[in-house]
Amino acid sequence: MTRKREIHLGLFLQGAGHHVSGWRHPDAEAGSENFGLLRRVCEIAEAAKFDMVFLADGLTSGIDAHPSTIARFEPLTLLSALAVVTDKIGLAATASTTYGEPYHTARAFASIDHLSHGRAAWNIVTTSYARTANNFSKAHPEHDERYAVAEEFVDVVRGLWDSWDDDAFVKDKQSGVYADPAKLRVLDHKGKYFSVKGPLNIPRAPQGHPILIQAGSSGPGQDLAARTADVVFTAQQSLEEAQAFYRSLKERVARFGRQPDDVAVMPGFLPVIGRTAKEAADKLAELDRWTDIKSAMPLLEERIGHSLAEYDLDGPLPDLPISDQLRSRAELLMALARREDLTIRQLALRVAAGRGHHIVLGTPVEIADRMQQWFDSRAADGFNIMPPFFPGGLEDFTQLVVPILQERGLFRREYGGSTLREHLGLTRPAPISP
């Protein structure tokens, strides 16, 4: 049977809001270390029947960092806490393949999947920023090598998740058998980057494998996603760009022998909602007025991968070589600046608002129309919602836009299952033979 296609919704949770000045809004609360706020925001998203809440992460900080990232909880610890105060919403967090170990990662996400009864998801990142190496005893690999490491890392994690058959832990008091040795799978991996014997010291996860999310849009990133991911978190600025990425990714999925509909493409989507289009535009203009260009420039330079200190802020973005840091995001922002003839200052303010993700201003109907257009045009299977501030920005979306999507038959009114894999309409995977 062909399953009904519905929009998937994730909440991209940044405790101080996604706009760099969102925390300054009179109705805003902050920040990413405020568990009471994070819990309430997740409860709002769950009440609206979102598929999941998504936590990004980084392994550095600094005084010029985005307010949502300057200080924040370690995400897997946070997911463990959220697992016991939510019931149905999926719980996704970032963990690095460049600055991590497969065994630790496999064990942590399997544990969260058990604690949440099947709601865990791992956002696979290779960690773009070279300065991260300052906190670890290793050199930062080049872009393509980071993805080569990630390919092997993910294979090892998936193998470890299948260390035990689903029915391995028999706990038979009569026979005295706690775990059936015939149900054990020893990975014994020896590769270029990792040597991991196994087995993993936790039963197979409720979802079989926790959901895999991948956010890279470069060629190697798309290949990793097409081969392994269940969800792809991407950034596109226009319908045409989004359609091209969607088509490219789905074609790659098919080349790896997978069903294209088994991978959900979910671009970032920052809605600014007003009773009229003008009111929405005024809301964004107010947030922009609170933005000091000195706080916006580091965010732009980080994503472009170059210092712009020597250039006129009110002049055009210069022609710069594509950075090895955030390759796909740098290409996206350079294309945006050229297409809309933006000055460096204007581009910095765009990045301060959405960091390259799609910003949509309008009434609730106009916001829903844009989402439906992208969904029906095969530019997206869903969206990671990025409220400019919390909790009001999320409440505007859940109270005003979600009901419109539900009335149009585009989004669920109730959860149809209890696991994230069920929310996404995906089957539970059989164990992978070592």
Describe the structure.
This protein is globular. It has helices at 35-47, 75-83, 102-115, 143-161, 219-228, 239-255, 277-289, 293-304, 327-340, 344-354, 364-376, 392-407, 420-423; strands at 8-12, 52-55, 90-96, 120-125, 189-190, 195-196, 211-214, 231-234, 264-273, 358-362, 382-385. Strand 8 (231-234), helix 6 (239-255) and strand 9 (264-273) form a beta-alpha-beta unit. The strands form 2 sheets. It has an 8-stranded parallel beta barrel, surrounded by 8 helices. It has a two-stranded antiparallel ribbon with strand order 5-6. Helix content is 38%, strand content 12%. The longest helix is centred in the middle third of the chain and has 19 residues, at 143-161. It starts with 7 loop residues before the first strand and ends in an 11-residue tail after the last helix. It has a single domain (8-272, 357-423), classed as Luciferase-like domain (TIM Barrel).
